[in-house]
Structure formats: C-alpha cells, structure tokens
Amino acid sequence: MTDEKELLLRLRTENTKEQAFKELLSLYKERLYWHIRKIVISHDDADDVLQNTFIKVYKNIHNFKGDSKLFSWMYRIATNESITHLNKNAKHLQISNEELQQNSISNLKADVYFEGDDIQLKLQQAIATLPQKQQIVFNMKYFDDIKYKDMAEILDTSEGALKASYHIAVKKIEDYLTSN
After folding, report:
1. Where is the RNA polymerase sigma factor 70 region 4 type domain (predicted)?
2. Cα separation, 95 vs 35, whole angstroms
3. DSSP code string of 68-107
4. Could you tell me where the beta strands, DSSP code E, fall in the chain?
5. Are 163 and 148 in contact (CB under 8 A)?
6. How far apart are CA 40 and CA 96, in angstroms?
C-alpha cells in the first residue's frame, strides 16, 4: 500500500494530482461505498453519495490538515454526505428520517443489488429501528470492524461514548430480533 504521506504530497502537487487521485480511488472506493451503502441503504443512492464524497475529497484535499488519518477524514466526509443525502430525501418526500429509513428497508428485498437472505434482511430491519448515530456506530464496528480510536476521529466524539452507543445498539438489535 502506498505511504499515506507520500500519496498526500502527490495529491497536493498539480502535476501528480490526477494519478494520485486515481490511486486514492482504487484504495478506498469499495470500502467507502459499503460504508455509505449501510447508511443510505439503496445502491443508486450510495453511488451518488460516493461520487459526491470523492468530489469533496478532490476539491478539499489541500484543506486536510493531517490531524487524523486520510482514511478517517474521508470516512467523515462520506458519513456527513450520507446524512445530508438522507436529510434531503426525507425533506423532499416530506417524511421523517425514520420513515425514510423504513421505506428503504422495505425496498431492500426488491433491490437487485441486495444479495442477503431473510436473516440479513431482518438484521437490516433491526438496525433501521436505531437512532441514526447508533446505526452508524453499529455498522462501523460490527460490519467494518473499525477500532473505537479511529471511529472517534471519524465521528469526532469520545471512545467511551462510542462504546456506550455500540453496547446500547447491540442490546436494541437483540431485543428486536427476539421479539420479531
């Protein structure tokens, strides 16, 4: 894997920026897609949000201060873009974010890109009942196995708060799965 500092330098240098960005895309596109997809549910929406994420990364790479890992910074952008996308859709449809989430889960079974079975669909339904922050924390920990330290950088919160959020989310999901 390319050294992050060297990649960052090439991203900020005009004559190497394009090639370095292609490398960045190939390194992170799939991971960011799945992170986004777990938040917005729909494949088409995830593609749109992923594209917006990389446009923001490309335009703002010179603003990246290096206080966190490049990966963490991009995950934060992807998370914020996903939330913005959901909020816009909910507002456009004049429904709550919770209703939007439930509609997305209902449409998941018909989604040609969803390859899960009934158990995975039930898990997605359980996750959809969680508040947005708990959903994001649960997905990042359970599916992506992101360390609390990295998650704290991405979500700009404490590790303790994330551990508590994850624990509460797991309990709610267990309760949902045993009662449905």
Report:
1. 121-173
2. 24
3. S-HHHHHHHHHHHHHHHHHHHHHHHHT--HHHHHHHHHHH
4. none
5. yes
6. 14
Residues 3-56 have pLDDT tens digits of 888 999 999 999 999 999 999 999 999 999 999 999 998 889 999 999 999 999
Give the tens place of pLDDT for each residue, 68-119: 889 999 999 999 999 999 999 888 888 887 787 777 777 766 666 666 677 7
CATH classification code of 4-179: 1.10.1740.10
26, 44, 50, 86, 112 from 103: Cα distances, Å: 32, 15, 21, 12, 16
Q: Which two tokens stand for residue 70?
A: 């490049």
Predicted TM-score (pTM) of the model is: 0.83
69: left (phi over 0), alpha (psi -120 to 50) or beta: beta
Domain ranges of the chain: 4-179
- CA angle at residue 16 from 10 to 17, to 5 degrees? 75
Can you state the angle between helices 17-40 and 4-11, rounded to 10 degrees? 110
